[in-house]
Design brief:
The protein is α+β, with helices and mostly antiparallel strands. Among the domains are: about 140 residues, Dna Topoisomerase Vi A Subunit, Chain: A, domain 2, CATH 3.40.1360; about 90 residues, no CATH class; about 110 residues, no CATH class; about 60 residues, no CATH class. The protein is built from 16 helices and 38 strands. Strands 1, 2, 3, 4, 5, 6, 13, 14 and 31 form a 9-stranded mixed β-sheet that branches. α11 packs across α12. The longest helix is centred in the middle third of the chain and has 31 residues.
Length: about 725
């Protein structure tokens, strides 16, 4: 079947067809029946700061439909329903025929940033109530004499101490004081606490006291959500464990209400199957798992984008060195992918006081795709700062009121307004014509806020905004990749998101990248990422074992076995018939060092300390340039990833019998970054570009959700999957 089919001659809304969609013949688990309407569709939905994106897959035919609508910040679930309603107009009884809904959301990160979580209390070991404020005792900016830190999610009067104590080996030094615990329950009732975090000293080794306390509290306050650090993060390091557990408790009631409300609304429209939610680690999980560990979805949406980029690069045959570039309405993200493996991290900072200063946020210890983020999206506001200089972002107009050109009440100029003035975006074809843009409003906003203060023309002001935001993104990506010890010139850039294809060409030139890939429906690629993500769950546990320990193998395999069983239960709750696979990792350090290096362990019955040492020193040398042969090393923590692979599919590509003479639908005046002036650009209809067709810059390629800009010196070729592969011949822009 063809890649693009027109649904209605009056509306150029395409359907994309995917070939080799193996959901009909899954590699793992029981066969699925595709000839019944009840299991026909799979729907993915990604809520962003400005737009909510949808992909709909017909599992019988491989055909895909898509949609994009404005996010509703006051009630994110409503934005989901709005998009489903638009899809349902083209697919009657949609939800009744849908097998699963895959969802990514910014709910948790927004709650932490905006401080809109529950009234939370913390119970901790006597003498440790101030650990949230003591933190690491580090200054994230040595020269800021007015340095500020994020306020703890739990105020001091809500942090309660309990007499009990265990040592670092898990031995009980002081039994839990039941009488005092009774008084704490009374205090929790009096303060109207909505959620409780429990973090007792050394509970990662022995959780007995935390479990005893939960049983005691649940018997008296059965409706109070309780988060135990021994379950949320059974790892060493008191501050990170406490901070992560508190964050989990803080958002737990909010996430539970959101899930309940969304599921209820979906059921009202006929949906009766499973809702799955994207974790920050790039796997899908059940609503039950997410309700228990909501902190795990703090980077839900960006993770889906990284998976989409990895999939697109693999399909196009360029998976060795890939830089994912996702520019949406609020932020831009970058992620490094090497040999098909997405870079991962075990820590994340939320709600930073200074958004781009490491150490100024709330530390969260959890598995997360390693993503660089910068406040540079289509809604990023352009203004003149107190020094009289142009500044773009990080403040954003978001979906409400949005850029000035949206006509929804926004009056401040944004990156999108600049792109309209520069000719990159067609005001009459935004979202395929479903949303008209007001070019006059964009020019007026730029004139008042940028052009007049700087004494330049409106066109010059628009270029300066576009140029500055692109350079900001390039600078951030250079730093991110330098920290990883990789050269961007050796990478292929995959550009997606609504703004990615617009800025991708110039960004690639500034980074020295010679190849740029833009997938079909690039503006909603994160929603595609949900469709190619596996069901998975990470289990982390501190297990301290010297590599020289004679019993290392037995202790290691025993711990890994228990952890794999925990992960398997989570995966089986979603896919009961699936074969569960595992990846295993160890955090290893030289004894005496405070930081460790992640080492992947072989999936073999025998694991030796010598083998782990070789793997550790290889990773250590790559990071630091040297190793220390005389120093003993130890395992600090273990991590297992239990997963079952997602359905594998390939984009089928556009039909080969299209008429190339109809691909150019118009020409318009567009600002060229190469020539630094307006030039005539031919405008191509992406849905009319057959495989093998080449487009030489300057050119624009328009589709419903985004526009691809190819400037002078670039040449784009459509591959068999509909991916536009752009080669860049010109020299790097200084």
């Amino acid at each position: 079947m063809p890649l693009w089919q027109y649904m209605d001659k009056n509306k150029s809304f395409p359907r994309m067809v995917l070939s080799e969609y193996s959901a009909s013949q899954p590699k793992h688990g029981a066969p699925q029946t595709m000839d019944t309407q009840e299991s026909r569709f799979k729907l993915s939905c990604d809520i962003g700061g400005t737009f909510t994106d949808f992909f709909l897959v017909d599992q019988r035919t491989g055909e895909v439909d898509s949609e994009k609508c404005l996010t509703t910040p006051s009630d994110p679930a409503q934005g989901v329903l709005n998009g489903i309603d638009l899809l349902a107009k083209r697919h009657p009884n949609l939800l009744a025929k849908t097998d699963s809904v895959l969802h990514a959301t910014t709910l948790v990160i927004n709650a932490l940033i905006e401080r809109k979580g529950a009234r939370t209390a913390l119970i901790t070991t006597e003498g440790f109530k101030d650990v949230l404020e003591i933190g690491r005792e580090m200054r994230y900016d040595l020269y800021d004499i007015f340095i500020t830190y994020p306020k703890p999610l739990v105020p001091r009067q809500m942090r309660l101490e309990l007499r009990e104590r265990m040592n670092a080996h898990g031995d009980i030094i002081c039994k839990l004081d039941v009488g005092q615990a009774e008084g704490l329950v009374t205090a929790l009732e009096r303060e109207g606490v909505e959620s409780l975090a429990v973090c007792l000293l050394h509970s990662y080794v022995n959780p007995a006291h935390e479990q005893q306390l939960r049983s005691f509290i649940e018997a008296r306050l059965p409706r109070l959500p309780v988060s135990l650090s021994s379950e949320v993060l059974p790892e060493i390091k008191e501050y990170e464990r406490t901070s992560t557990t508190v964050a989990n408790a803080y958002v737990k009631p909010l996430v539970e209400r959101y899930i309940d409300r969304l599921v209820s609304r979906l059921r009202d429209q006929g949906f009766s199957k499973k809702l799955l939610i994207m974790l920050s680690s790039g796997g899908m999980a059940s609503t039950e798992t997410v309700s228990s560990y909501p902190v795990r979805i703090v980077e839900s949406g960006p993770a889906a984008g990284a998976l989409a980029a990895s999939h697109v690069a693999a399909v196009a045959g360029f998976s060795e060195n890939v830089l994912a570039f996702d520019m949406g309405g609020t932020t831009a993200k970058g992620c490094v992918i090497r040999n098909g493996q997405i870079d991962m991290a075990m820590s994340f900072e939320a709600a930073r006081v200074h958004r781009f200063k490491k150490g100024s946020g709330i530390p969260l210890r959890l598995p997360v795709i390693d993503i660089m983020e910068i406040g540079a999206g289509g809604g990023s506001i352009a203004a003149i700062n107190e020094l009289g200089l142009l500044q773009v972002g990080p403040e954003s107009a978001a979906a409400d009121p949005g850029p000035a050109c949206y006509g929804l009440g926004g009056v401040k100029p944004t990156v999108t307004d600049a792109n309209v003035v520069l000719g990159y975006l067609n005001p009459a074809f935004f979202l395929g014509g479903a949303m008209k843009l007001d070019a006059d409003a964009a020019r007026k906003a730029l004139a008042i806020e940028v052009a007049d203060p700087l004494g330049v023309s409106i066109d010059q002001a628009a270029w300066r905004v576009h140029d500055l935001v692109t350079e900001n993104m390039a600078s951030a990506i250079r730093v991110h990749m330098t920290e990883k010890g990789v050269d961007p010139e050796r990478f292929t850039l995959v550009a997606f998101g609504g703004g990615g294809p617009v800025h991708g060409y110039t960004l690639a030139r500034r980074l020295g990248v010679r190849r740029l890939l833009v997938p079909p429906s690039a503006g909603i690629a994160s929603a595609l990422g949900l469709l190619v993500s596996p069901v998975s769950f990470d289990v982390v546990r501190t297990v301290r074992i010297p590599l020289s320990d004679q019993d290392l193998e037995a202790r290691l395999l025993a711990s890994l076995g228990e952890m794999q069983d925990d992960g398997k239960r989570s995966v089986k709750s979603v896919e009961p018939a699936a074969d569960v696979l595992y990846k295993r990792f160890a955090e290893v350090s030289y004894i005496g060092q405070g930081f460790s290096v992640s080492v992947e362990l072989p999936n073999e019955p025998e694991i030796t300390g010598a083998d782990i040492r070789v793997r550790f020193e290889s990773s250590y040398a790559n990071l630091y340039g040297q190793t220390y042969d005389e120093m003993p090393a130890q395992i600090v923590s273990l991590r297992t990833v239990a997963f079952c692979p997602a359905a594998d599919f390939r984009m089928a590509g556009p039909p080969k019998k299209l008429r190339p003479d109809l691909a150019v639908k118009s020409k318009r005046s567009v600002f060229s970054a190469e020539k630094r002036r307006f030039c005539e650009f031919p405008v191509y209809d992406r849905y009319a570009l057959a495989p093998g067709i080449s487009v030489t810059g300057p050119a624009l390629i328009e589709e419903k959700e985004s526009t691809v800009v190819i400037d002078f010196g670039g040449r784009g070729t459509v591959d068999q999957h509909g991916i536009v592969a752009i080669t860049i011949e010109s020299e790097t822009i200084a």
